């Protein structure tokens, strides 16, 4: 029985010592965490410290940054493709406009060809409903539209 009491007292003592050590460890970790926060704040307040923190943030967010860059590159490529198609369409329309305006202004063409050219210009967006062939003989009238 005496052995048992001694063993219990020893176990209690060990528990108290372990609890004390754990409390000391917790205090040290808490103090060091606070000290690290204070150090980080002091480091940021210096110019080089701010640069170090910025580099750290860049490294921490590297995946997000590269993903954003690649996404913007894809969007820029898509925009370039759309722009190229628009330029082709505009060039085609300009050629058609010049072609039909040339027919309308060519007095050697038949009246039927010139009327068809006026209709095509109207289809392409040039308002020609109130232009007669006599008026179309003056290129300036057509260019004002």
Task: Describe the protein.
This protein is an all-alpha fold and 145 residues long. It has two domains: 1-60; 82-145. It contains six helices and no strands. The chain has helices spanning 2-45, 47-60, 62-105, 111-123, 133-136, 139-144. Helix 1 (2-45) crosses helix 2 and helix 3 packs antiparallel against helix 4. The longest helix is centred in the first third of the chain and has 44 residues, at 2-45.
Q: What's the oligomerization state?
A: single chain
What low-confidence regions span 5 or more consecutive residues with pLDDT below 50?
A: none
Percentage of helical residues? over 70%
Helix/sheet category: mainly alpha
What is the CA-atom radius of gyration, in angstroms? 42 Å
**Tally of extended strands?**
0
Query: How does the overall form come out from the CA principal axes?
Result: rod-shaped
Please state roughly what percent of the residues sit in beta strands, choosing from under 5%, 5-15%, 15-25%, 25-35%, 35-45% or over 45%.
under 5%
Give the CA-CA distance, first to last residue. Answer: 117 Å
Overall tally of domains? 2
Mean pLDDT across all residues, rounded? 75
What's the helix count? 6
Give the H and E element order: HHHHHH
For the sheet with most strands, the description reads: none
Summarize the SSE layout with pairings.
Blueprint: H1 2-45, H2 47-60, H3 62-105, H4 111-123, H5 133-136, H6 139-144
Helix pairs in contact: 1-2, 3-4
Outline:
This protein has 145 residues and is mainly alpha-helical. The protein has two domains: 1-60; 82-145. 86% of the residues lie in helices and 0% in strands.
């Amino acid at each position: 029985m005496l052995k048992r009491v001694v063993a219990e007292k020893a176990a209690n003592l060990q528990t108290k010592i372990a609890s004390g050590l754990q409390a000391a460890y917790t205090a040290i970790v808490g103090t060091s965490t606070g000290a690290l926060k204070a150090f980080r704040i002091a480091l940021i307040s210096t110019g080089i410290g701010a640069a170090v923190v910025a580099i750290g943030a860049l490294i921490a967010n590297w995946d997000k940054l590269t993903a954003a860059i690649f996404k913007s590159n894809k969007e820029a490529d898509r925009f370039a493709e759309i722009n190229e198609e628009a330029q082709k369409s505009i060039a085609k329309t300009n050629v058609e406009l010049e072609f039909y305006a040339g027919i309308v202004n060519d007095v050697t063409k038949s009246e039927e060809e010139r009327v068809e050219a006026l209709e095509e210009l109207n289809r392409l967006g040039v308002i020609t409903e109130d232009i007669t062939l006599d008026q179309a003989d003056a290129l300036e009238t057509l260019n004002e539209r």
